[in-house]
Amino acid sequence: MTIDEIRTETIRLGKLCNVDITCPIEINSRLKSTLGRVCYEWINPYEETIVPSKIEFSKQYIETAADEDIKDTISHEAAHAIIAYKTHKKHGHDAMWKELHKKLGGDGERCSTAPRIHAKYSVVCSKCGAVVGEYYRAGKVVKHPDWYSSNCCGAPLRVFQNY
Predict the structure, then answer these.
(1) What is the pLDDT of residue 115?
(2) pTM
């Protein structure tokens, strides 16, 4: 899907609930483990009222996922935004959000069943082969696996690049 198709679908879902989604809808290349998110800004911090400031979707997810999975993520984030526009509160994944997500064609579940974006590096135990961790950046564990050992067997770690 293109960003224009995503914007059109998000705005359409808002209109189904008589809400104008006016915040920017963007692609964010920094989102790695999050498929999408709604960012908020305070209307009045003393009353704890908010309004969506933007809706973002993961670039890698949009480029690799199936259209049906992307539509479920759009309905998920649209449900968050619509509730925030209507109530000026965050509702997380409560009953109100769940009901709206189902009304918008989603499954009402907090976590997506879509395949996740693969991390750049997998760290595994050299003895049993268990995955110890997955990393999107080359931090200390990835750069110096010899400094660490696995929790399962106490064996040295091995790093694999997934790209």
Answers:
(1) 66
(2) 0.75
